[in-house]
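Query structure, 199 tokens:
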């Protein structure tokens, strides 16, 4: 299986890339995958050219093919102005409109304060729902104070487990099936019920 990690971090070293690497490692522990990382900072010029002339450069085309051919994605963006970065959004703007249809996606973001954690549900989740991806229930946000804290590690493991489950096609553990339907729950046809009521 192939996991493609899309990191929109701009600095070196990058907390965004660090979170992306942790997510990929956690998925790999649960369901061994071939990991390919797409660093958007190296594709910024080609993305801009593609937006203006409609043609991807060689490196961008390879990244587009990698995403389209992946069994699952882990995508991580820094928070800029309370949303995903422009570079992050621009990359997904230049993908084929069907590239993510039905594809499992784990969303993540990094920021300087916990107050931006809602970016996962207010920006990232709607974006990938629009692209018809299957977004795992647990998103992972890492503020500056989260690094080294137990809560972050727990969220990483939970989200990675959800992505691994979708990628391998294993059913998630759910409630046990009832042994037999209760007699009180027997379905009575509508016409029979009307007859019983004398209608």
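Result returned for the query:
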């Amino acid at each position: 299986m192939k996991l493609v990690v899309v990191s929109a971090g701009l600095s070196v070293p990058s907390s965004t890339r660090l979170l992306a690497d942790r997510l990929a490692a956690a998925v790999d522990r649960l369901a061994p995958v071939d990991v390919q990382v797409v660093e958007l900072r190296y594709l910024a010029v080609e993305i801009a050219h593609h937006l203006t002339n409609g043609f991807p450069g060689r490196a961008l085309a390879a990244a587009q093919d990698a995403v389209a051919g992946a069994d699952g994605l882990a995508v991580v963006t820094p928070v800029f102005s309370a949303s995903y970065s422009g570079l992050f959004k621009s990359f997904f703007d230049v993908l084929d409109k069907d590239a993510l249809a039905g594809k499992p996606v784990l969303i993540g973001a990094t920021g300087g304060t916990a107050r931006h954690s809602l970016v996962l549900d207010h920006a990232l989740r709607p974006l990938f729902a629009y692209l018809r991806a299957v977004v795992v229930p647990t998103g992972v946000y890492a503020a500056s104070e989260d690094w080294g804290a137990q809560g972050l590690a727990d969220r990483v493991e939970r989200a990675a487990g959800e992505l691994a489950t979708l990628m391998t096609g294993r059913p998630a553990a759910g409630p046990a099936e009832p042994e037999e339907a209760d007699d009180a729950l027997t379905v009575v046809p509508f016409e029979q019920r009307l007859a019983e009521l004398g209608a």
